[in-house]
Amino acid sequence: MAFIQEYDPRKILDHPDFRVLAEGEKPAPDANIAAFYNPKHEVHLVQKPRLKPGPGQVLVHVRATGICGSDVHFWKHGRIGDSMIVTDECGSGHESAGEVLEVGEGVTQWKVGDRVAIEAGVPCSQPSCEFCRTGRYNACPDVVFFSTPPFHGTLTRFHLHPAQWLHRLPDNVSFEEGALCEPLAVALAGIERSDLRLGDPVLICGAGPIGLVSLLSARAAGAEPIVITDLFQSRLDFAKSMVPGVRTVLIERGLGPKEQAEKIKAVADGNVKLALECTGVESSIHTAIYSVKFGGKVFIIGVGKSELTFPFMHLSANEIDLSLQYRYANQYPKAIRLVAGGLINLKPLVTHRFKLEDAVSAFHVAADPSQGAIKVQITD
Ligand SMILES: NC(=O)c1ccc[n+]([C@@H]2O[C@H](COP(=O)([O-])OP(=O)(O)OC[C@H]3O[C@@H](n4cnc5c(N)ncnc54)[C@H](O)[C@@H]3O)[C@@H](O)[C@H]2O)c1
Ligand SMILES: OC[C@H](O)C(O)[C@@H](O)CO
Ligand SMILES: [Zn+2]
Ligand SMILES: [Zn+2]
């Protein structure tokens, strides 16, 4: 049987052992199955060829993977923005942790059985790349981000990964928590660049997984008070169950951003210094802008439409800084330390669990708001 040693997505798609499983078909227990989406907006199980680590690579048995909103988006809409487009079968998943199964030539830092979190964005690491050289590797133009087309994702049984982009999980950090270090890394990158200080009043817009990990991070960083918003009371209740001290504001669809901001300021005892925007929705960004004080900052983690408007003169007359975040760099070790040290408890975020064979059902639950899922994970 031929083994694949490279990440080239075509090597998998063109391999004779690649095929889409028929609905209800039971794969062999050790088959390398994965959840793929395609341009026809289908999500299905596929069987991939066997993988063998090449030099510097590690074969990981993926034990836990979370479904991210972007996985659902690629499935349902076939693209994110103008550059990430689903043009063929593509593997999903980039929030993963697992166990080392086999190491390739020259790999000395990992051995069989080691527990690892998988950093899904692998930059080129070439000295000629300014962004890799200067540590801002999330900007690497040649990054391989597993699960962003055309690169297949980590929602699979066996995944090949470069040794240096795995992170060791201490014994007290589970695979599920290791997988959740990916969205946590997004929030931590935002918190780091937002310059949040002890005692800062903070607003978090949106209580989805990113808003909730931002809430946990802001709490760990000493923000006080923290106000969180959402359109759904159930999400606000969930936020409160995780951080009892958080103050909540339910966003009413009939109110404009200035009126929403008045409600937020009343709950926050004044304007906040920092807003972490975790929806990417234009009206929510406006609400955040009207909620911060003179000299404050609106840090936008959410993503959305290609173009949107800003209340320019309000920003200008109030010296409000706007910042944005694209994925993350250098956050995994920090995320793992915070979880291992007990400063951030990610466990409650996992509300639904599925076996790898049932990954398609997991996608349907993650995509259906009436199911009330926060984070759906697939374990193997
Ligand atoms: N910058 C990055 O690198 C990066 C990385 C990962 C995710 N994201 C983005 O972060 C955002 C949040 O991700 P998520 O997984 O938590 O998404 P999600 O859709 O699960 O959660 C968003 C939450 O915002 C709420 N919401 C929607 N409109 C609102 C409004 N007007 N006011 C208040 N709340 C509102 C929703 O009810 C929901 O609970 C998404 O836009 C996602 O694409 C960005
Ligand atoms: O968590 C990382 C994000 O989901 C990715 O940037 C994705 O949105 C596009 O590749
Ligand atoms: Zn993601
Ligand atoms: Zn690079």
UniProtKB/TrEMBL annotation:
Which E.C. number(s) belong to this protein? 1.1.1.12
Write down the InterPro entries for this protein, in alphabetical order.
ADH-like_C, ADH-like_N, ADH_Zn_CS, ER, GroES-like_sf, NAD(P)-bd_dom_sf, SDH-like
Domain (Enoyl reductase (ER)) ranges? 40-374
Q: What's the domain of life for this entry?
A: Eukaryota
Name the PROSITE patterns for this protein: ADH_ZINC (PS00059)
Which reaction does this enzyme catalyse, per its entry?
L-arabinitol + NAD(+) = L-xylulose + NADH + H(+)
- One BP annotation, GO: sorbitol catabolic process
Needed cofactors, names only, are: Zn(2+)
User: Which keywords label this protein?
Assistant: Metal-binding, NAD, Oxidoreductase, Zinc
Going by the record, the broad EC class of this enzyme is oxidoreductase
The molecular function GO annotations come to:
L-arabinitol 4-dehydrogenase activity; L-iditol 2-dehydrogenase (NAD+) activity; zinc ion binding
Q: Which family does it belong to?
A: Belongs to the zinc-containing alcohol dehydrogenase family.
Assembly notes:
Homotetramer.
Q: What is this protein called?
A: L-arabinitol 4-dehydrogenase
